[in-house]
Amino acid sequence: MKNTVCILALVVAALPSAWAQDRIYRCGNEYTNNAAQAKERGCRLVEGGNVTVLQGGRAPNASGGAAASTGSNASSPASAPKVSAADQRARDADARAILESELRKAEAKLADLRKEYNDGSPQRTALEMRNPQGYIERTAELKASVTRAEADVAGIQRELARLNK
Predict the structure, then answer these.
(1) Are 50 and 21 in contact (CB under 8 A)?
(2) Is 34 helix (H, G, I), strand (E, B) or coil?
(3) Around 161, how many Cα atoms within 13 Å sit in the side-chain half-sphere?
(4) How far apart are CA 64 and CA 80, in angstroms?
(5) What is the secondary structure of 99-132 as a DSSP string?
(6) What is the CA radius of gyration of the chain?
(7) For the purposes of burial, counting CB atoms within 10 Å of the CB of 25, is it exposed (0-12), middle (13-18) or buried (19 or more)?
(8) CA 28 vs CA 31, 103, 154: distances in Å
């Protein structure tokens, strides 16, 4: 009986080491347990907790088929649906048209605000004649609105410039 308890204790002590994982290294978005490859690529050791890795290859795309991961587009995941060049050009043209429309609206709004702001001297209303503080507050609000509208126009122009590259 004593011998059986010793053997059982040894088996129980050996079980966790059988379940333990090898050292796992993270190389960007990839994981490996090959220490030589990890050292060569400058990967970092993953510590704390277990890592579950599923073998890659083919993943279903939006149409239900399988998309081969060729690695040609490193910025999109392998499971992302592939878009033809013509479709992408059409999408880019649509985005450009939307941005140009938004730019025209933002520029019109900015022009209206600048006209109303009148270089810091907006037209006083009858109520503001009797209440000078209201005029000061409205002038400050107009100035802030002009600044926001200018930032909107500049942001849309940056997006258009980025799209035209």
Answers:
(1) yes
(2) coil
(3) 6
(4) 12
(5) HHHHHHHHHHHHHHHHHHHGGG-PPPPHHHHH-H
(6) 32
(7) buried
(8) 8, 38, 35
User: How sure is the predictor about 150, in pLDDT bands with cuts at 50, 70 and 90?
Assistant: very high
Compute φ and ψ for 23, nearest 5 degrees: -70, 135
Could you read off the pLDDT of 36-91 as tens digits, one per residue?
A: 888 888 888 887 766 666 666 655 554 444 444 444 445 667 777 888 989 989 99
Cα 62 from Cα 79, distance rounded (Å) = 8
Percentages helix, strand, coil for the chain, rounded to the nearest 5?
A: 60, 10, 30
Strand, helix or coil for residue 45: strand
Question: Exposure of 139 by Cβ count < 10 A (0-12 exposed, 13-18 middle, 19+ buried)?
Answer: middle
DSSP type of residue 62:
T
What are the structural domain ranges in the chain?
A: 22-52, 85-163
Describe the crossing of helices 85-117 and 132-163 by its angle, rounded to 10 degrees.
160
Any idea what the Cα angle at residue 161 is, between residues 157 and 163, rounded to 5°? Answer: 115
Q: CA-CA distance, 150 to 110, in Å (whole number)?
A: 7
